[in-house]
Write a structure and sequence with these properties.
By secondary structure, the chain is mostly beta strands. The chain has one helix and twelve strands. The radius of gyration is 22 Å and the shape is globular.
């Protein structure tokens, strides 16, 4: 049965100073210092979900609040029947210029059944906090860049052929979000680099693992309030929090879309399918031990 590694991170947003005519010095007076430009300021802001599962660099403004409700679904049809659904609720605010914090909570339920008819169930629940700091803005530097740190913990209940029990995990995710305007006000691209370390305990046995992910996406504005795009995801899974032993990889592709309903609400939908993968020392062209075959998401966002 597949256990997902939980991933999350830290980023931010900012303001810039503006010089007004009334602030100009009198003749022979001291020179006025140039206005402070915040490197994370964006005149043309983008919803962070405009790229689907890939995350954009924009962050919440200072003192502003936003909230999201996300429904994630995953299922596998080859070799076994596995279905999982995860609900995530998150709020975020800009604490100061270029820095955002976003606590969240989640709940998951998963059921699986193999070809022999053996079934099992699991559920996990937990929460965490995500910190974002935006270091580069598209308007100033041509490329938006945000550093992201996510700390989370979860408990897991499981039952099946090997019996029933509980375990727990602590997860650390570090990310770099990059995005760029490729065609002015028409086409945007993004790249995410992500490292995840997981420390889990089952019946007193400690196990650590890690995952490295690369995501890339493009999104086109087809209407003033509607974007469509495509993205790819490559992932490698390891035993050991520091990439000690390679276990397998997976490659995924899929479409995404975002509807900016109004200046407060956004709705994002994304889907990805595993098109290639390898489980170490095992035959086959998919890795269904560490990943699911299909991933889907619907995410509703609101700006307070």
């Amino acid at each position: 049965m597949i256990k997902s590694l939980v991933c999350v991170g830290f980023a931010a947003f900012t303001l810039s100073g503006v010089a007004f005519a009334a602030d100009l010095p009198a003749r022979n007076g001291p020179p006025v210092p140039p206005p402070v430009l915040a490197s994370c300021l964006e005149n043309n802001t983008l919803a962070t979900d405009v790229f689907g599962f890939t995350v954009g660099s924009d962050v919440t403004d200072v003192g502003a609040w936003g909230g999201t409700l996300t429904a994630n679904g995953n299922f596998t049809a080859r070799g076994q029947r596995l279905t999982g659904v995860t609900g995530v609720a998150q709020v975020a605010t800009g604490l100061f210029r270029c820095f955002e914090v976003g606590p969240y909570a989640y709940l998951n339920g998963t059921s699986a059944k193999d070809k022999a008819g053996i079934s099992g169930n699991s559920s996990f629940y937990g929460g965490g906090v995500e910190f974002k700091y935006k270091v580069l803005g598209r308007d100033v530097h041509g490329v938006g860049a945000t550093l992201d740190l996510d700390l989370s913990g979860n408990g897991n209940r499981f039952s099946g052929l090997l019996g029933a029990g509980n375990d727990s995990a602590f997860n650390v995710a570090a990310r770099l979000f990059l995005d760029r305007e490729l065609v002015k006000d028409k086409l945007y691209g993004a790249i995410n680099l992500e490292h995840i370390s997981t420390y889990s305990s089952r019946t007193g046995v400690l196990v650590d693992g890690s995952q490295f992910n690369i995501r890339a996406a493009v999104s086109a504005k087809v209407l003033p309030n509607f974007f469509v795009g495509a993205e790819a995801w490559y992932s490698r899974t390891y035993l050991g929090a520091g990439y000690r032993t390679y276990l397998g990889d997976g490659f995924f592709i899929g479409p995404n879309a975002l509807w900016a309903i109004n200046d407060k609400w956004t709705l994002n939908a994304a889907y990805q399918v595993q098109v290639a993968g390898k489980l170490r020392l095992a035959p086959g062209n998919l890795n269904l031990a560490h990943y699911n075959q299909h991933y889907a998401r619907i995410k509703l966002g609101y700006a307070f």
